[in-house]
Amino acid sequence: MGGECVRKGKHVPFYYTGMNTMITTQRQPNVLVVDDETNILKTIGICLDSIGCITDLVSKPLDAISRLREKKFDLAFIDLKMTPIGGMELLDEIKKVSPETTVIIITAHGSIESAVEAIKRGAYNYIQKPFEYKELQLIVQRAWEYHVLNLEVKDLKRQLTHLRDTGDIITKNKTMLEIVELARRVAASSISVLLEGESGTGKEVLANYIHKISARSDKPFVKINCASIPDNLLESELFGHMKGSFTGAIKDRQGRFEVADGGTIFLDEIAEIAPSTQVKLLRVLQNKEFERIGDNVTRRVDVRIIAATNKNLDEALKEETIREDLFYRLNGVRIKMLPLRERPEDIPLHAQHFIGLFSSQQKSLSQEALRRLQAYRWPGNIRELENVMQRAVVLSKDKVIHVDVLPEEIRSDKNKYVIERTLEEIEKSHIIRVLQHVDDYEEAARILGIDPATLWRKRKRYNI
Length: 464
Fold this sequence. Notes:
- Helices cover 46% and strands 14% of the residues.
- It has helices at residues 38-49, 61-70, 87-97, 112-120, 133-162, 174-187, 203-212, 231-239, 256-259, 275-287, 313-318, 324-330, 347-358, 367-375, 381-395, 408-411, 416-419, 423-436, 441-448, 452-462; strands at residues 15-17, 22-24, 30-34, 54-58, 75-79, 102-107, 125-128, 193-196, 221-225, 240-241, 253-254, 264-268, 289-290, 299-300, 304-309, 333-336, 364-365, 400-401.
- Helix 2 (61-70) runs parallel beside helix 3 (87-97) and helix 10 (275-287) packs across helix 12 (324-330).
- The chain folds into four domains: 15-147, Response regulator (Rossmann fold), CATH 3.40.50.2300; 174-336, 3-Layer(aba) Sandwich (Rossmann fold), CATH 3.40.50; 344-417, Helicase, Ruva Protein, domain 3 (Orthogonal Bundle), CATH 1.10.8.60; 423-462.
- Strands 4-3-5-6-7 form a five-stranded parallel beta sheet, sandwiched between helices. Strands 9-12-15-8-16 form a five-stranded parallel beta sheet.
- It contains 20 helices and 18 strands.
- By secondary structure, it is α/β, with parallel strands linked by helices.
């Protein structure tokens, strides 16, 4: 533990040792100490000064209420037995006047039950008289870590609230926000949309967002994973069939296109469709008509198509696994989703969102756990992060989620993200980061040490 005393208004950094690492905060905690025993008050003040706290020592509880209205406190140590009002009443007042203040109760040996009751009413912890310096300092360290993390959680929640106009798409990444804005403009039309990106990057979420804000939102949103259905059954799944048209066709059946009439159909893993089915899909795109298997009646539908793939479509075209005419029909607007490793600023937002989703209690990530999450490569992207946070919530017994409940691949290899990246990935990631923090491309080129023409070529090469 480090730190210096606060003397004559000279502020020094506050140092505290968290569960896993030494963390230095940029500001000192403001601490209110309320105890009607002068010796106890002075002892706590000296101890807290020694680790860099800014302390206000108050011997009268009514004066403490006035002080709370004048100044914002991070932590408060309150004696349980005082007059004319006790610590329990003062705790209630703090929760009204300064709800973000983290309160620690000072209690004598015979009032442990009352201290526990105070915790139920909002106190963070208690310390029992008589206490040692080290015990008090440890309580301060843990309370400050909890307080800082609690503020970060509230800030993340405020950011999540601010981002609600992006639907279920959680991001503050500049490129992703541009993608959301493009999706918003596209939604007003019926043009086909082609989504590219690795598995778990949120292609289905974006497709659903486009549907929800479109004029078709009151009609069905039908999704189908083309890779999960055998080729001999996919045509029937898409277009339907008539009774007796093949073995197992025991009754007439609507296809997904008929179900989606008037709405939107989301075709995931479009590159996995067999060539024969691609021909029929092309006809729907061109003429909005098809026949069920075993039927000669032509049916018409009004369906907006959003297709997605995790494959490189340019390579698929070269290999002729996808028809060129179908590709150009689907490619009305082409959107490429960013992998999670290229938007590390979104990891805290998603992590806190999933914590709230899976936990009935308020939990938060330790600084070290968050650092490990942001350093990881995330091959499974947001879907993988969701699974990791669900596991962490289940295994964590504390309000703070620490590194020890994270999977081994995240917990042990600190530099895995950097080591396994190719030179092109590093260059692309660096260019993206620079572009996120500048106003124009000339400034970005200057920072990168290249001319604007070179930056333009690299942006085109990396599809930035």
